[in-house]
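Quick one, probably user error.
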């Protein structure tokens, strides 16, 4: 065993024998670091090992005894993996009797401890967290407001709230967005241009000078380490007041070149004797907001993480952690904020991502079980009756539609409430399947409701359902019962915000007495006056546009009605099974025969006139066109103004003889609906719009979709926009114009030209942008997935298998070792997708 490692063995063993009181070395373990580090380097120990020991021991004094034991255990195991001759060390720790939670607040180590404690107790939380938010055994102080910390007053607390940070626990789960690797240390004379390195040196001199007529102040310093000197600059005059000649400091940054000599511009720096959080390590970089600096937040995070990570109780029992090969939660929280190595960081992320998927799967399984425990009215139908309905349709169903219809038929006949997601690309025929489900239910004298996100989309569905359910037989050659429509037109009604009051009263009465069998509408269906005689099927289109509470409200208007939700956004199966794990899934992945693919092309910005020529030619043939402008944030006026200004320019300069309409998200809903109605009815030749037209509107006469700034959109959004054209029998075109020529080779744009298959594009979109952006809107019912990558099939399957195994063993999580997990699950699904109890 190398002498440096033998010293560590003796120190660590003595610490374990002393119950981790940090007195194995007089003054604390970190006092031995300088001499040990020099000895380790002289013995040529690997740099990553030296850095791991130094970083962990520097944090040692800030940890609780339990966390110290776990830290030494993890560090010794790592050393054993690198050096096979190291003996075994046991780092057992007996938990002392729990403190009173109200006194369990962090103390600053050192001489200021008593003052620190007084300050913390003087600052009582102004709005303590609700009791149900806290897991049993977790200190109440974890839910204290951040203002209990020194250096965080009311103003800083208010600023942190913009980042979603209100409590100390929030800080633990405010994860870095990336990391800068400053673990490589070099003498100055060995520095090379363009590398990110750490340098230790002495300040030779410091000065400031003015630039641009005094508008900017530049601080310059010369740093020397004996091997050479380095010129360092900061655009920050205050640094000159913090540095003095003779100070020893640590610098981390990227080397640059000025007048042939290497320099550093705006590097991170810290005094050499200070604990290094921004230099000489893998440095966390946190999401910020105005008036908060990275350095300040990093210091606050370290204060909280060092003290509290070891006090957060792990909801996963040890047996489950071992089976899943997961590090303890305290280790994951420490390492994700201030990692000792990239491997430690990877293990931390894996553990925390596993928790996200695991809780999501457990919640979905419990919710599905609760749903299946209910009973519903069964609606069986004979084969002859169903075939007669199919014969009535003016088209034949695809195999994918028939398979989905079989699933729906089985659900409706089962005696248990259907809870099914119908996923299908634009134009795949989801509405036809929904219409047949409605026909099955209404053939038993029950009622069905069909809810759509917008008035114009509800009106579109109303027209289609009138044709499918109450229209005349397309072909009566067989003379079969198919000639009889499923419903009378009067039994199918539309209820939207613009419905006249007299008609609305008539519809409400018809729903209440059961004479109206099918109602199509918007959020108006959720209002209190709407009541049903016998609602047995609820269909929700574009389900991601509705909240969980809204779907629950619609269901509550019946007695355990069957639920069918539909989406036209192709979702990769891995994502669908994870996010919608409480729903049964049917996929319509086949397009009806005869539909022409939309011809998609990427044009350079200088080729814009070619797109205008195509639009003019199509309009002369009696067609219509969309021109889309990007909307990045609804709050950004510039994007809306771009559409407004472009509509004026296009109308006056490019298409003066055509009628150019305008649609954007800042219009009132009634005005938006009217513009879309006018466009559908042919009042405009061209519609200039933002992405507000992305979902649902069917304008069969539109054959050109021109998308400006196409590089700004994700694949799913581009595909949805492309789906607005080609709805009729005529050939359609989608033209993609990026912001600049170098964006023309954008991977998303190239993918759009290669395929019209929404599911292939969805997989690519998920790989490129991740699940959060892919879904667009937050799925309520569980916390946002911060770390889990839905493309990581191994992680998903691992979490799902362990969740299913646990659920089969103890679905109520009633065993004592699952008490904390049950509370964590309840908290993570609080206010979300149904009750988790």
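Nope, works fine. Designed sequence:
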């Amino acid at each position: 065993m190398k002498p440096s490692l033998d010293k560590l063995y003796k120190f660590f063993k003595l610490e374990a024998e002393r119950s981790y009181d940090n007195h194995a070395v007089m003054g604390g373990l970190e006092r031995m670091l300088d001499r040990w580090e020099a000895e380790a380097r002289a013995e040529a120990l690997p740099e990553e090992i030296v850095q791991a020991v130094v970083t962990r021991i520097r944090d040692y004094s800030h940890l609780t005894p339990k966390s110290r034991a776990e830290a030494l255990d993890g560090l010794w195991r790592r050393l054993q993996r690198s050096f096979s001759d190291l003996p075994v060390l046991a780092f057992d720790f007996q938990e002392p009797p729990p403190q009173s939670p109200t006194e369990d607040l962090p103390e600053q180590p050192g001489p200021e401890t008593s003052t620190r404690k007084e300050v913390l107790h003087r600052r009582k939380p102004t709005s303590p967290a609700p009791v149900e938010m806290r897991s049993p055994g977790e200190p109440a102080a974890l839910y204290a407001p951040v203002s209990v910390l020194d250096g965080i007053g009311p103003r800083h607390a208010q600023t942190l709230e913009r980042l979603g940070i209100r409590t100390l626990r929030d800080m633990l789960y405010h994860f870095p967005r990336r990391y800068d690797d400053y673990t490589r240390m070099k003498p100055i004379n060995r520095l090379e241009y363009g590398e990110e390195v750490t340098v230790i040196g002495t300040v030779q001199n410091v000065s400031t000078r003015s630039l641009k007529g005094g508008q900017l102040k530049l601080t310059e310093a010369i740093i020397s380490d004996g091997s050479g000197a380095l010129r360092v600059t900061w655009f920050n005059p205050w640094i000159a007041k913090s540095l003095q000649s003779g100070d020893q400091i640590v610098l981390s940054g990227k080397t640059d070149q000025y007048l042939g000599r290497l320099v550093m511009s705006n590097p991170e720096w810290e005094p050499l004797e200070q604990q290094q959080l921004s230099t000489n390590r893998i440095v966390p970089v946190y999401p910020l907001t105005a008036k908060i600096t990275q350095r300040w937040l990093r210091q606050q995070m370290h204060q909280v993480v060092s003290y509290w990570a070891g006090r957060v109780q792990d909801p996963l029992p040890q047996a489950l952690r071992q089976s899943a090969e997961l590090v303890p939660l305290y280790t994951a929280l420490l390492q994700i904020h201030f990692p000792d190595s990239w491997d430690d960081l990877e293990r931390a992320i894996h553990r925390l991502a596993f928790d996200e998927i695991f809780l999501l799967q457990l919640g979905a399984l419990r919710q599905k079980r609760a749903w299946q425990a209910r009973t519903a009215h069964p609606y069986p139908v004979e084969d002859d009756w169903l075939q007669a309905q199919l014969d009535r349709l003016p088209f034949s169903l695809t195999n994918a539609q028939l398979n989905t219809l079989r699933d729906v038929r089985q659900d409706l006949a089962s005696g248990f409430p259907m809870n099914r997601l119908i996923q299908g690309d634009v134009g795949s025929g989801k509405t036809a399947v929904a219409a047949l489900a409605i026909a099955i239910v209404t053939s038993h004298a029950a009622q069905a409701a069909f809810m759509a996100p917008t008035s114009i989309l509800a009106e579109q569905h109303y027209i289609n359902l009138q044709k499918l359910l109450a229209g005349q037989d397309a072909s009566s050659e067989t003379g079969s019962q198919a000639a009889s429509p499923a419903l009378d037109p009067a039994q199918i009604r539309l209820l939207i915000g613009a419905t006249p009051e007299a008609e609305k009263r008539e519809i409400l009465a018809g729903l209440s007495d059961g004479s109206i069998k099918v109602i199509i509408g918007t959020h108006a269906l959720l209002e209190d006056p709407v009541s049903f005689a016998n609602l047995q099927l609820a269909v929700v289109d574009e389900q991601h546009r509705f909240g969980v509470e809204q779907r629950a409200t619609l269901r509550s208007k019946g007695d355990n009605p069957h639920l069918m939700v539909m989406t036209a956004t192709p979702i990769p199966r891995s994502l669908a099974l994870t996010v919608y794990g409480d729903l049964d899934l049917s996929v319509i992945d086949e397009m009806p025969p005869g539909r022409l693919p939309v011809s998609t092309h990427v044009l350079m910005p200088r080729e814009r006139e070619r797109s205008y020529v195509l639009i003019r030619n199509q309009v002369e043939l009696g067609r219509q066109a969309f021109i889309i402008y990007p909307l990045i944030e609804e709050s950004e006026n510039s994007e809306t103004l771009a559409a407004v200004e472009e509509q004026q320019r296009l109308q006056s300069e490019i298409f003066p003889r055509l009628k150019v309409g305008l649609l954007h998200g800042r219009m009132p809903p009634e005005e938006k609906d009217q513009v879309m109605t006018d466009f559908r009815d042919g009042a405009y030749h061209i519609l200039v719009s933002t992405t507000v037209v992305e979902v649902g509107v069917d304008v069969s006469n539109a054959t050109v979709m021109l998308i400006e700034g196409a590089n700004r959109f994700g694949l799913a959004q581009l595909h949805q926009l492309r789906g607005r054209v080609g709805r009729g029998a005529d050939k359609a075109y989608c033209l993609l114009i990026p912001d600049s020529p170098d964006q023309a080779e954008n991977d998303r744009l190239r993918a759009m030209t290669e395929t019209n298959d929404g599911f292939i594009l969805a997989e690519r979109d998920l790989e490129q942008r991740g699940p959060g952006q892919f879904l667009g809107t937050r799925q309520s019912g569980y916390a946002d997935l911060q770390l889990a990558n839905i493309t990581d099939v191994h992680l998903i399957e691992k979490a799902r298998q362990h969740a299913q195994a646990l659920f089969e063993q103890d679905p109520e999580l009633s065993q004592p070792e699952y008490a904390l997990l049950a509370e964590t699950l309840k908290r993570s699904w609080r206010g979300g997708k149904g009750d988790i109890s």
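The mean pLDDT is 80.
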